[in-house]
Write a structure and sequence with these properties.
alpha/beta; 2 domains; three-stranded parallel β-sheet; 5 strands; about 20% helix; globular
Length: about 130
């Protein structure tokens, strides 16, 4: 895409903390242990700060917790190949068009409510 190609720095809370990190551990990585390269943080706020300050930083958190923040970019998610209707389909947690960091806080990204409300639209969703 023309930008830097940094090393990915995974950031996460402990799965025992519950919430989205517990769901991610169970539903996405199948309760596999995380690597030693994962940077542990206290809570979502600490994770967001760490990601914002770290080139290549990535964290998992619920969409409502991250979509309106000005210092990070929430990533659209794709589906596993066997579940895709369109091979290029990804679903953003925010409403299009994306509001770039430079226009925030005057404008903020908004949660993509239709994707979360319509059954089967958002790739990772707890009940």
């Amino acid at each position: 895409m023309g930008g830097p190609n940094p090393r990915i720095i995974p950031v996460s809370r402990c799965p025992q903390e519950g919430g989205s990190v517990e769901y991610f551990s169970q539903a996405v990585i199948g309760k596999q242990p995380v690597g030693r390269n994962v940077v542990r943080v206290q809570d979502t706020t600490d994770g967001l700060r760490r990601v914002a300050a770290t080139l290549g930083g990535i964290d998992d958190a619920s969409a409502p917790e991250v979509v309106g923040h000005c210092s990070i970019h929430p990533l659209p998610l794709g589906r596993p190949v066997n579940q895709r209707v369109n091979q290029n389909q990804s679903v953003p947690p925010y409403q299009d068009p994306y509001v770039p960091v430079g226009r925030c806080p005057q404008e903020r990204n908004q949660l993509n409510h239709p994707a979360f409300q319509q059954q089967g639209t958002y790739p990772i969703k707890s009940n």
